[in-house]
Design brief:
mainly alpha; 7 helices; globular; GST_C; glutathione transferase; glutathione transferase activity; transferase
């Protein structure tokens, strides 16, 4: 999916902020997009699978200690995300939204869809989410995440 996003940004000459031509900003986007696969995506989807899909498939609730371990793994990468990528900037690459922000938030919505509000005690992360939602449009954001946000009701 990352390769497709980059292809589309180049092919359709999207506004520069999505995949910046400035090499330092682009390096920040590329760095995040490379890092996220085994970190945000890996840990976020693991929590979703563990909390929603496995109990649905097996008919058995997960042992609390297993869920606690998966949640802690996610919390570690969320802390890294805030410290390394967000720092004190509005968005990952600086003052404007980029593909990195959209990819990051999409991945973080999986644990939210599993009932884990990872934004609740993280004001910096919550504020970043608000900025990303506003940049893409709140209605579009809600439409795009409707399915995942209702997954815990399966």
């Amino acid at each position: 999916s990352i390769a497709i996003l980059l292809y589309l940004a180049r092919k359709f000459k999207t506004p520069d902020h999505w995949y910046p031509s400035d090499l330092q900003k682009r390096a920040r986007v590329d760095e995040y997009l490379s890092w996220q696969h085994v970190n945000i995506r890996g840990k976020g989807s693991k929590l979703f699978l563990t909390k929603v899909l496995l109990p649905l498939l097996t008919g058995q609730p997960l042992p609390p200690e297993k869920l606690e371990g998966v949640t802690e793994e996610l919390n570690v990468v969320l802390k890294q995300f805030e410290e390394k990528f967000l720092q004190d900037k509005p968005f990952i690459a600086g003052s404007e939204i980029s593909l990195a922000d959209v990819v990051a938030l999409v991945e973080l919505m999986q644990p939210v869809g599993a009932g884990y509000d990872l934004f609740e005690e993280r004001p910096k992360l919550a504020e970043w989410r608000r900025r990303v939602e506003e940049a893409v449009g709140k209605q579009l954001f809600q439409e795009a995440h409707e399915g995942i946000l209702n997954a815990k009701n399966l």
